[in-house]
């Protein structure tokens, strides 16, 4: 076994990824930009075939059926079509529409119990001859569900046994053997998600309603979180009185993680703010005189403030507004009483 080189001889530059093979596989053909461009153009042409030949009256009937469904809209499929069906169902759920994915295999082993009269079951299958879906049809029909086949092959079995069929025109798969389902699944995804957005518009879903379905995402947080949801409360505030000496308040200034002092009167009305930047400027200008200066003498008596009911995203905009950005905003009520502070760090940490 060979020994490792001394530590001082090891250099990251000596390692490469992917590693250079001394014997490249002679069976591999090179891939260049031209090859990739040709493939993307071919896929674009196949998708254009779908767009140009899609039966819009059929698609409209499908969309209206989903819109008026009294129950839950279930999607099912096998293999790649199953992944697409699950994704489209998740899109509908994110829009506030009752939907779920129903595995055809699990459905035949008990999960079909979730189906009820008034539900819609959408079956995705390129060929329309998928055995698992065909076995599911009579069971779903016995439960009273309305069945819709979404297929790409003309005159298929599944279309004949469902209540409705939507034909997704497929010129061919991008695969050179016309076998790997890469164009058909792209068409299914485009079709399903476009219908989902049509349903979104028909239901007059507002931006705020959409946000309530995405509370953990940045969009949801920007439309849901208010200042009062992300601010530090009174017990966490670095407060002082205007008559306090600056040097006596250094611990308060630095220990609360806000980068400032909030100057208040006896009734907790906000008088002004004194920042760590103010401290540096005061020390530079006054030298040893700083030991005699009070916070009230050097504080900013016209700081930017914000209402607790304001949106948190608006607080961030206010912090970044001209003439110069700030790192915090005191939160005051209508009586100018200090009730909290919101910091840029806190807003960023909350995901805004």
UniProtKB/TrEMBL annotation:
Q: What would be an example GO MF term here?
A: isomerase activity
Transmembrane annotation, as ranges? none
Q: Which GO terms describe its biological process?
A: carbohydrate derivative metabolic process; carbohydrate metabolic process
Marked site positions, Catalytically relevant: 80, 132, 173, 214
UniProt keyword terms in alphabetical order: CBS domain, Isomerase, Repeat
Residue ranges constituting the CBS domain according to the UniProt record:
231-293, 299-352
Do you know which Pfam families this protein is assigned to? CBS, SIS
- Is Isomerase found in the keyword set? yes
SIS domain ranges (all copies): 63-205
Q: Where is this region: Disordered?
A: 1-28
CDD domains this protein is in? CBS_pair_SIS_assoc, SIS_Kpsf
Keyword Ion transport belongs to the record: no
Q: Which family does it belong to?
A: Belongs to the SIS family. GutQ/KpsF subfamily.
Protein name (database record) = Arabinose 5-phosphate isomerase
- Species source reads Cucurbita argyrosperma subsp. sororia
